[in-house]
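Weekly structure sync, notes
Attendees: PL (lead), two postdocs, one rotation student
Agenda item 3: pending single-chain targets
PL asked that the sequence for the first pending target be pasted directly into the notes so everyone works from the same version. It is reproduced below exactly as submitted, 203 residues in total.
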Amino acid sequence: MKELTRYQLKKISKNLDYYFNAASSKDIKEGLQWYKNANVICKDIAEKYNTNVFIASQVISAISPRNKWEQNIKDAYLIFEAIKHNMHPEDIKICTFHSNKFKAFNIVTNNVQICEKSLKTYNFVNNIALLSNDHLTIDIWHLRACFNEPINIGSASIGRLAYNQIKKLTIRKANKIGLKVYEYQAIIWNSIRNINTHLTANN
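Predicted structure, written out during the meeting:
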């Protein structure tokens, strides 16, 4: 996806307004706490396994593809427990792709970092670990909200220019109403998933 036009950005702004205003009180309440709860989990992992919040959040991010959140957290603890007992990736089973499991082990054992070129996961890590208001996790659901279209997983990738445009726009909109961008994004994530329940089962 190339650089977005002013017209496209105006449409995105209106679409985000729509999904934010459509959020239920439950969507808002859960959205305000989601990243804070994730941060607490990472702090617990860091304390239990003598690591830091940033590494814990990177592991969670690495094993997140096609992995439901509750299972994602269980799998993260399992990985750290396995490493504590000198086990290897092939010794355990988790609910994501093998490549992501090996990536998670590599993050812990070899201090391999998720770098900035991995746009979504890098921003996700910083949102969880630092509760950063300068990063935005643009996943498939945020893209669906932005474009108000049922985007498929295979076509959910956007270029750096478009990513940064959406990021700046979303941060600006969140700050304008007194929210952190991760709170705003989580509320919209809840809202659009609940409105489009027919898409939720397989994504």
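Discussion points:
- The chain has a mean pLDDT of 93.
- The radius of gyration is 17 Å.
Action: rotation student to compare against the earlier draft before next sync.
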